[in-house]
Queue: 2 jobs
Job 1
Amino acid sequence: MTAPLLSIDNLKVTFSTRNGLVEALKGVSLSLDAGETLGIVGESGSGKSVTAFSVMQLLDRAGKITDGRISFRGQDITRASRSMLQPLRGAAMSMIFQNPRAALNPIRTVGLQIADVLRAHEALSAHEARGKALKLLEAVLIRDPEERLDSFPHELSGGMCQRVMIAMAIACEPTLLIADEPTTGLDVTTQKTVMDLLAEITARRGMAMILITHDLGLAAQYCQRVAVMEQGLVVEEAVPASLFGAPRHAYTKRLVAASPTRTSTVGSLVVDADEPAPPAPRVSPRRPAEPLLQVSQLVKIFDNGFRGVDDVSFDLAPGESLGLVGESGSGKSTISRLVCRLLDHSAGTIRFDGEDIGAIPSRDFYRSRFRKDIQIVFQDHGDSLNPRFSAFDCIADPLKLLTRVQDSRELRRQVEDCAHRVGLPTEFLNRFPHQLSGGQKARVGIARAIAAKPRLLVLDEPTAALDVSVQAVILHLLDRLRRETGLAYLFVSHDLNVVRMMCERTIVLQKGQIVEQGPSGALFTDPASDYARDLIAAIPHFDPEAATARHREAAAAG
Amino acid sequence: MSATLSHTGYILRGNPVTLVAGIGAALLILVAIVAPSIAPYGPTVSNVPLSLQPPSAAHWFGTDQLGRDVFSRVLVATRLDLAIAASAVSLSFVLGAMIGAFCGYAGGRLDRWVGRFVDVLMAFPLFVLAMALVAALGNRVENIIFATAIINLPFYIRFARAEVNVRRNSGWVEAARASGNSHARVVLLFLLPNVLPAMAVQISLNLGWAILNAAGLSFLGLGVQAPTPEWGIMVAEGARFITTGKWWLVVFPGAALMSAVLCFNLLGDGLRDILDPRMRT
């Protein structure tokens, strides 16, 4: 047996912070053979990116490798000097970063940037470099490569930027490619094309790849081996089929359970649910009640003439949960803000409880008696909490303004009651947002939204910024809240599995228009429109058989 | 509270310059309060036979052309100079932050008009504008404060406007609106407190500048008048004697001026770190 391409042996990395030394990696051992694809999955803070950065020797100054060995092609590079690394980086191993737009230089054309990489390792004339750059852009299947050579990063879409990054990474034919969350932030369909491209390129050129991701489905679909990391340790390593089919470690089990799949339900996401969900007094979607919300022929044209929402109509019954799904630019977030009256629409009507609330301009809506009835939970929980308000102040704010609670003791009682309902311990109420974890911030955001006892809750990607295990808990919480209070939900998400679990009905949006709508179950099993079918097909999933079939296919293509 | 203290301690340990500047500023304020009672001589008591004496044990900073004790005058002048600067800065800060924050939040026509007005104001040579204001309004201390406040105003308006502008589309402002906050409440309770840490830096830097400005006006004979102890006037008066080697008349009030300005400028950076809760973990 030959030596592995890359081997990491008992790697320990510590960061010195103001709170003392923090051990980010506590003895990580991994190995990778030439041409193999290894997935590293884990949640934020598990040390997966630190591992990649240690291999590339890109740790920032606060981080130190305290113990262990990294060897690449049999050469010890643990404490390699700059001059020793220079020829390796880019040429023998290269990296693809999470945010392609931030990783590209905004003031240089992509052609020049690819040429820069080439010329750093080979003596090439400008003309030769340009020719090679063109070939690389062709290899990453960019449309009109000739034209794109002279484009600046801001002229390209996120997916195209990531292709340019891939082109740069493979420019010098490295033997090892490290992809750190290469598709996070991209739409599912774009994610699929980018990942397919990466898989195809690595297979054809015999490159080894480390794919770092938080998405188990993605790892299962594209990797031959997957390592699960938790708090600086590799807790389990196996082939995807056995790892996801029969996880052994408790953490892996929890992670696998928490990842939404085609068949999971809200209840099945959380392994040890703290309390049994109350019996479902679910409102039948076909209850002949007067709709709570009626949106008809809604249009939003932005100042620059862009039609963000184009003739959208839908109804929402009291207590019903309606999902809005679509990719970025589909207008789903715009609709949520229009319904919340945080943004003015250009045409159409929005009726709430029979009254035309669309007639009230958004700037005056804070005075409306309906303000209390329509509340919103935002996507970015960090950004949606005032940094100078404690959790208590955040939750108390709508109570003071919308339900006119004046008495301070009564206010405290109600805030604590809200905190209790979202599972936020009372001692956290004195903390400021930066002292709370992502999940806790999400709970504060939800508590604030339900504090005034609204009748309609708009959820704008409430779990998109959270780790899967936290997402599972929050979804569970949201589902329970709805059962308890009979709230109606307008649930906006890009994650179709989440919408399927949370909503009775789903609307699929594309470019501001409704392409399909219907009961969630039927829509997911038997989508009528091509777009919905593409969306559903693009969701990464860990269907072990499909994954193995894909690998065979890729190997055959290579 | 103790968290704030320990955070302050942490910042100061990592940044001793701030500590020194803070001590200096505290000392200046203390001197401003107690100066009349600790000054060894009356600041306006002249003793002609002892005029233009170099520094000695009896007169640490020497005496001026009328035999007044320069040390006492420098000490007593601290109160007036700091008072002028502090009131001018607070005036321009309060007005400027409000105007700027509301413009930044509202946008639109109001914002454009105020923006142009500020541009016009800034197109003037500011010191000349202050001189003109004092000359037109009358040679009084209040008018120096007023003039200094006016010429500082554009910086605060612009600063508050820019800071509010980047935050007005943030999630927590939208959330505040969804919670039923009126626009005035959003600006006053949400946006201003978030802008404050950044503005504290500006205040501290500005305080130094305002001291310099007030002293400059007095140096030119505007505002504070001759017998009153004031650093600017003292430098102006001493300048006449510098060619004859009577350096102490200019150097000591000048050094007082310089150290005051330096203290407030250095304090700025440290203040920002202490006031910003996001710097805490």
Job 2
Amino acid sequence: MSAPILWIFAPLAAGLAMLSIPRRTHLKAVLGTGILVLLAWATWILPTVDTVSIGSLSIGISDTLNILGRKFILSAGDRGLVILIDLITAFWFTGTLAVKVNRMFIPLGLGIVSAEVAALMVDPFLYAALLIELAVLIAIPILAPMGKPIGRGVIRFLIFQTLALPFILFTGWMLTGVEAGTADPALILRAGTLLGLGFAFLLAIFPFHTWIPLVAEENHPYEAGFVFMMQSTVVLLFGVNLMSRYSWLNSSADVYAILRLVGALMVVIGGLSAAFENHLGRMMGYAVIAETGFSLLAASLGTQSGTEIFSLLFLPRVLGFGVWAITLSILRSLVGSLHFSTIQGAGRKYPLVVVGLVLAQLSIVGLPLLAGFPVKLALFEALASQSSQAALWPLLGSAFLLTGVLHSLGVLTIGKQRKFAAGVSRMQYLLLGAGGLALLVIGIQPQTVYPALNILLSSIGQLAH
Amino acid sequence: MLVLLPVAFLIVSALAILIIHWLRPEFIGSWLIAAVGAFLSWAVILFLRFRLPQQISLAVWQPVELFTSSPALVFDRVSWLYALSVATLAFAVILTATARGQYQTNVSAWAGSLILGGLGLLAVLAANPLTLVITWAALDLAELAIMLGSVEGEELGQRTVLAFAARVTGIFFILWAIISSRAQGVNLEFSSVPSGVGFFILLGAGLRLGVLPLHLPFPAEPRMRRGLGNILRLIPAASSLVILARLPEAVVPQAWMPYVMVLLVFTAVYGAAMWALATDELNGRPYWIISLAALALICVVRGDPGASAAWGTALLLSGGLLFLYSARDRRLGVIWLLGVWGFSGIPFSPVANGWRGLWAVPFSGLNLVFLVVLPLLLFGYIKHALLPGDPLFAMERWIQTIYPLGLLVLPVTHLAIAVSNWSRQVDPGIWWAGGVLSSLLTVATLWVWRMPDSRVQRILSDPSRKLLEPVFLPILNWITAFLGLEWLYRWLWAIFRLVGKLVSVITMVIEGDGGVLWALVFLALLISLIRVGANP
């Protein structure tokens, strides 16, 4: 038996089975979360290469699965990445207990997990692009449920993600020459340019970022948030592993310089756009863009500590955007829209929801006390140790993002004192309370989770130049 | 762990009264719980004077190779001064709340005062810049929640958010200081501030002194302005003042010195004048803070950060006394006179050492300016103290006992601070500066004290108008409008809207129907720019 079967096909099978459950989203949420937590636990404890004896029956477990000449390999080191994907998805599934989502969300979410786990395991590595595209296709019905018109954002999401595919596959073909050591610098330059373009499409790098705010505006914030998180996490992991694999990439100072430039550009553009935004959903979209920029900046350090910062950034990001998306979903269901003209004074009626929103936003900004701060500070310090200019721009981007947060806070708290309005359920309060508490605890005591996360993600490709 | 006890007493008593109030709203012992918690906190800090220094690590952030610093608290000579001042303020607010109870008994205001007191203690005990920014953020978020929960209306809400923005900007300056230190290969600590970095710390602290924007939106009710309002104004100031005393001596580059000094001296004079002219102490409170904070900052810029603590504690304790002095009686004159003594600069008084930080040797014209600032502050203090207030004699007997105790704890603590610094305090400071001021003070006090009530009030409210109004008031009003920053907000808002329009036009273009093509055009442009940059 091949170990990858369990981690690729089990979620897929569970998702397919859940498609037959007509409604009951809470049941699906509990089942989906349970399955993923169980898989994460199994990934942690089960060996990937071993022989398991059950009575007289002996089952050999192999870490490799062959399909159509391609290999899916779950090495011991990659288990952390699979656990990360499973737990991030389980976290988002738990949130559906508090917010009403598309009934296909959980089954299709499990399908996305399958595709993305497969993307991290596939060899040759560049076939991951195909599996990421598959995940994108599975995500489309989440963002555009049957019977509802498809928005511009979803179409553009599909266009840009699909455009990435030929660039990366073509690079794969070119790289066979590079790997054989016969490549000339011109070929490397061409391959690098094509690869860069492919990743620019996948990671929504300026100017291919426009689908993010559009999707965030037109779609349910929780569903959009899930797609943003899954997509960016897997593409970032894919990108760093790719870099660590090819020495012509990870030993080139130019690559790191470009990563730094692009990362800073994304943080500044994301922050600046958020500062002038009048829609809370779109603001979250711009914050996603800025966060991707922070990850690129961490990768641009090209050091061991840079890789560690890159890995640790995932936790506060997922937690922050999770709480942010839940609060937006609650507000949208209560007031109808997330545009500033509609949500004016919502903080007076639903103060605890707005407290959750502001904490999540400020955590993403990197305000001290909250989860995003320790790793962001480590990143700023690491950037500054190379060049203070490199740290200045992302700090400025954070300041822009903070301006947007303060702008929205001002709008949300306009008006007279009112009695707390009904409409927020206990489950919503419970999840918001837990999320807010987690943001504070990780912000003050990062040592409670980061060392474990660091070990878990130690297999992320090491970058060094 | 002893270091954490004072904080724990304040926070636990606050949580206790909130929970009890939630479960049993009719419970009448909440004030007592708050008072006991505040007293224990104050007493433990007093006791810790004999156990200095003490340091405690709150956590060791891991992985250690990424986190160069971890949160820690320190009880040393400087932090003890400010910690005691903060705990005293919290204690005094709870004790004097009895006299304000006629307006409304408010458990949430007491709890708010205790929580802010606890967070303020953490801030003044911060052992390194990392702990400082974390505690500042906690203080700011707590203050924001309290303010937004109590103010109404669009303008007041916006002012609250603006005040929060000013404070967070201060945090960003400290973060930049940490980052720039790292750029120089130094891990920023209060004891090791690289050249050029101290100025950012000074800016960050200055922004957080609670004077920008000048008028914070407190509702007019005394409960908010006197008790919790006092805490909201003074504790953030304390959390900024404490780092001034920790800065190295040459914090401002020599070339900038004259400009920074002129700005600070101007601020001190302006604040003192506005304080003297204010209609009452609560309206004058921002000016009291601005003026004394400027004096503390001048000590730092002049290379004597240690002297700034004298002005800082005077700001908190003498100021706190007057701001809590709501119920008035002639018999309480002794208490506020002790408050006057606390910041008078008389030899052997608590701020006698503060002169050392202001006075330049050899004599310069600026020294004369300081001889104007302090008399103005003294004049304003006495004038405001003599204004009529709520009649104390009409209150219940127990209030007539507890309330004066609440006031008395402030000057007594100030005296304790002076005594604790006795080894330095034996030095009478710059005796003749103190002498001039003490003479002025004595003459003014005797002159005022011997007059009948009606004349005292008339004269004390008149001279500012008769002598100062025609000349200074228009100028001061212009300066107030300038420092109120309304003009700046209007400009910033105009720029914000302009850039916003530009951004929205670009967004509309790239998100419109031709967005995909525009993206390709932008990409081509970007690549060509990068190519030009790489091969100029």
